TrEMBL record:
Subcellular location: Membrane
Organism expressing this protein natively: Mycolicibacterium obuense
Pfam families: TspO_MBR
Protein name: Tryptophan-rich sensory protein
Gene3D superfamilies: TspO/MBR protein (1.20.1260.100)
Length: 159
């Protein structure tokens, strides 16, 4: 895979991680601490472990998929995948701002569902080009689906 594509997808994933991380800083705030959380809430230490792995996965699989599409002469599909990836990363970082900064729990649950759908679409697109790449990206929509359930339950518990 050309390093140019990987540099772009890694840079986009890193930017998403930074923006989302800045938005998530209120996770140590009294407001967040006081929220009722479901029994299936992972420990706080899980998030800084899971997300870097997922961002790396997104960057590598996306670069590989985009390059494979270009190599196959499917340039329009490569551009479409790139747009879908950009939208996904905006949703990804946006969730943190909606949840932690705006404290809009219901809106955050809807945003999490949109992110899960978008992540599923990315994995589907990658699998259509390279089945192994789609399988490698599968943990991302699974985690986003779990995050949707978690976000929805936090919203329900704190209405």
């Amino acid at each position: 895979m050309p390093s140019k594509t990987l540099a772009k997808t890694a840079g986009a994933a890193l930017a998403t991680a930074v923006v989302g991380g800045l938005a998530s800083r209120p996770a140590q705030s009294p407001w967040y601490t006081r929220l009722k959380k479901p029994s299936f809430q992972p420990p706080a230490q899980a998030f800084p472990i899971v997300w870097p792995i997922l961002y790396t996965d997104i960057a590598v699989v996306s670069a590989s998929t985009i390059d494979a599409l270009h190599e196959q002469g499917r340039h329009a599909e490569a551009r479409s995948y790139s747009r879908a990836l950009a939208a996904n990363l905006v949703l990804n970082a946006g969730w943190s701002w909606i949840f932690f900064n705006q404290r809009r729990l219901g809106t955050a649950a809807v945003a999490a569902a949109a992110l899960a759908a978008s992540s599923t679409d990315l994995a589907r697109r990658a699998a259509s080009v390279q089945p192994a790449a789609g399988a490698a990206l599968a943990p991302y929509p699974l985690w986003c689906g779990f995050a949707t359930a978690l976000s929805t339950r936090i919203w329900q518990l704190n209405r």
